[in-house]
Amino acid sequence: MFNSLSGRLLVLTTVFVMIAEVFIFVPSVARFREDYMLNRLERAQIASLTLLADDMLAPELEAELLRNAEVFNVVLRRDEVRQLVLASPVPKMIDSTVDLRDDSALVLIRDAMRRLITPRNEVIRVIGAPVRDAGLLIEVTMETAPMRAAMIDYGLRILILSAVISAFTAVLLFLAMRVFLVKPIKGVVGHMQRYAAAPEDARRIITPSAAVTELREAEEALQALQTELTSALRQKERMAQLGLAVSKISHDLRNILTSAQLFTDRIEMSEDPVVGRMAPKLVGSISRAVHLCESTLAFGRAEEPGPKLTQVHLAELVAEVLDAERLALGEFPLELACDIPPTLRVRADPEHLYRVIGNLVRNARQAIMAVQGAGKIEVEAWETPQAWMIALRDTGPGLALKAKEHLFEAFQGSVRKGGTGLGLAISAELLRGHGGEIELVHSGPEGTEFLISLPKGDGAV
Description:
Layout: H1 5-53, H2 59-69, E1 73-78, E2 81-87, E3 96-99, H3 105-116, E4 123-128, E5 137-143, H4 145-197, H5 213-267, H6 273-300, E6 310-313, H7 314-329, E7 334-339, E8 345-348, H8 350-370, E9 375-383, E10 387-394, H9 401-405, H10 423-433, E11 437-444, E12 447-455
Parallel strand pairs: 3-4, 7-9
Antiparallel strand pairs: 1-2, 1-5, 4-5, 6-8, 9-10, 10-12, 11-12
Helix pairs in contact: 1-2, 1-3, 1-4, 5-6, 7-8, 8-10
């Protein structure tokens, strides 16, 4: 019980109420002590007035008056004359004097606490002002033991009453917390547990219903989280199914391409100069296709190898990409340009880098051909002390807003009919394996520019 929110609140409420009662207890006991001594002064004054009315009182009556007033003697000052009105033997010397006429509250509290912790019976002189202006001053001599016993009795009654009030308040607060806070929280926890059992089931998403503002905000945040998670799980399931299908296709396609690779070995031996010039490109393309199928199969087994970094002659790799794209152009008026220093070499996986640049050039070509206008695609590269930079610019129509918002997300960034939106997502993934990145510099009616950066360091800090 005490590990629960309501149980701890019950304990804290009781403790805090008791602490508050302690602050009430101290001045209350001090006030009780002051009233006790004032009461003894009043009784003594009444007894002295009896003597003033009749000077001839029997010693037995005088002793009874003093016992009723619980004092040893009474001194009354009237008309500037100090007069011992009633007197009886004092058992011992007077230990201290208490003047109730001008003591401050702090002094009264200090003396009251001191009296509580002093069990020794003392004789004190108490001075005060007579009631109803019956004189200038009245003082009595009294014992402290009866007063201390009365103070302890009064303090115990206050503490018991405080404990009852604390317990009653804590129980009421405990019940209120269970009804208005703990029960709704348990409801939210129950929703979370039911949702965790089947997160793909949209019917288990929580519907905010709490009346408490903070709790309702928590429910709304949980609803948004569950909705997003359910969508992500559905997307993940579709991706898994798609991955399985792609793996199957890649398996069969790899077998077909392997057979085609055997035929290209014969084509390379042809004496036709055109065939001899085109055969290496065909062989290279088929080899890359076979490698891509093998990588896809490895990815389907969650065993995709990392990049194999070597020194790559960038100008030759880009020229090969552009030559492959020229075959797809036919007679279309599109200029493919390369502005890369012939001696520039970068450290990268050649197959990965070919796929990255090939995806970017292919996307640009398809965008320009889709608007049926002439254009230009240019690949430029340079190096800085920290990285190799590759820029790809085109004069195409620019990217649509949807494509910009989901540029590097699989199945989200394509707006072309028949497009999958995988090209840029794959490129970004491959570049991350190199420690590099790709960013969109700008895109508009005047064209689009992407910038690739490949770091020269090894990633060590």
